[in-house]
Amino acid sequence: MAVIREDDLIQSVTDALQYISYYHAPDFIAAMGRAYEVETSPAARDAIAQILTNSRMCAEGHRPICQDTGIVVAFVKIGMNARWDAKRTLDEMINEGVRRAYGLPENKLRASIVADPAGKRLNTKDNTPAVIHVEMVAGEGIDITVAAKGGGSENKSMFEMLNPSDSVADWVLAQVPHMGAGWCPPGMLGIGIGGSAEKALLLAKESLMEPIDMPELKARGPRNNIEALRIEIHDRVNALCIGAQGLGGLTTVLDVKIRDYPTHAASLPVAVIPNCAATRHVHFHLDGTGPARLDPPDLASWPRVDWAPDAGTRRVDLDSLTRAEVAAWKPGERLLLNGKFLTGRDAAHKRICALLDAGEPLPAGLSFKDRVIYYVGPVDPIGNEVVGPAGPTTASRMDRFTETMLEKAGLLAMVGKADRGPEAIEVIRRHKSAYLIAVGGAAYLVSKAIRSSRIVAFPDLGMEAVYEFEVHDMPVTVAVDSHGESVHETGPKRMMASLGGIPVRME
């Protein structure tokens, strides 16, 4: 009879979370490689190239794929005949594994979890607690799947209680455009159908732990209604031409996963949860013989894609930037940023705008006048790094602060990821500002452009503090120009028009 030791479980959780922080699963890499090969949109192809280059860099350097190292989700299946040699509870053991993984000096991960979520939202500083789901099954061992779920993709989750006669595919297709690009496509959609409200959401999350097999499914054909539905949703979503980072392209989803469960005759609960381009999960088994062994993937399975900026890319000097220069930027134009800018996310924006709206001064040394802000919460540096992986966060969360930041703080431009809402776009147009995007899912690649870093204000906010970064040739794309044109609106439309509006079937 298997005896599961406390230290073995803790060490296995620690190792698994470190593993998924820097290794993409081979099935995901293969799918992204196929997407890169078939992509015809230059902007989307460039974004995928950055994601693949970043992925290989992380695998080789053992640094996080994304600056958002996620909220830990653990699916635990405990054999009915398993025995324990442990003094801690299951939750305590898993959370100790999380604590050790996120604080490992060789690859410290970002602490993103806040307690008192509807109140003070204070960072727990070690990324605990994890979200843990437990199931009792036959057997003597323990199966655990751990995932690190980023906030940008989790925030785009959707749920609806449909009528039994409604079409699940039609509902999903109606919702996907509202997800925008904040979930960092290309990625996966996990769909849960049936059960109760909470069961549908759990099914959707569980489905995302399955391997990508859409090419194999299409090659052999569907064997049941669920498989046929997967293909239908996959093809119809990709026919929207949202594409990588929402810029317009052939691949928005790499796969669609569906799990279902019997439900009430009056109900049709449906949930959709996306996984982003930093999809991270791994499964391991404990049988009492020691910690789980996780073998590194073969780096030869990564496609040989080495991103580099185009020769004609415009270089921008942030230290002498003028409004006239910002007005000259064109939608979709790629830029290389050089010089110094400030950073800020939700918590910093809330404080800054509260001070400005009250007519109070900002902290000493903090001024946004004629400067650019980068929406980022970086990973702590290790070794000789000036900063850890530092990819962009979802810009739309800052929409509510945009008027104040442009009008009262005097910002020239903003850098983030994904699309902006219509009100923020109008504010950008009215102030003759601009919004630039860096590629979500390329955080380590972006960090290599950062040459110096210092905290300017609000150090108590941890990764949400205001930093000043000095950058050299940081790649960005003009997403909203000074006239209010958004490439997240025009890019997919132009891509679809180039295809004659014909639905695309990705093989």
Structure write-up:
This protein has two domains: 3-285, no CATH class; 314-492, Fe-S hydro-lyase, tartrate dehydratase beta-type, catalytic domain (fumarase). The mean pLDDT is 96. It has a five-stranded mixed β-barrel. Strands 6-2-7-12 form a four-stranded mixed beta sheet. The radius of gyration is 23 Å and the shape is globular. The protein has helices at residues 6-22, 26-38, 42-61, 90-102, 151-154, 168-179, 197-207, 214-220, 225-238, 323-328, 346-357, 402-407, 422-430, 443-447, 487-498; strands spanning 3-5, 71-79, 83-85, 114-115, 122-123, 131-137, 142-149, 158-162, 187-194, 253-261, 268-275, 281-286, 314-317, 334-343, 372-374, 413-416, 434-437, 450-457, 466-480. Helix 6 runs parallel beside helix 9 (225-238). The termini are far apart. Helices cover 32% and strands 23% of the residues. With 507 residues, the protein is α/β, with parallel strands linked by helices. The chain has 15 helices and 19 strands.
Q: Number of DSSP helices?
A: 15
- Rg over CA atoms, rounded to whole Å, is 23 Å
N- and C-termini, Cα separation:
47 Å
The largest sheet is: 5 strands, mixed, barrel
Instruction: Estimate nothing, just give the exact number of structural domains.
Output: 2
What percentage of residues falls in helices of 4 or more residues? 25-40%
Structural class: alpha/beta
Query: Uncertain runs with pLDDT below 50, 5 residues or more?
Result: none
The largest beta-sheet arranges its strands as 14-15-16-17-19
Mean pLDDT: 96
User: What share of residues are in beta strands?
Assistant: 15-25%
Q: Which geometry do the CA atoms define?
A: globular
Number of strands: 19
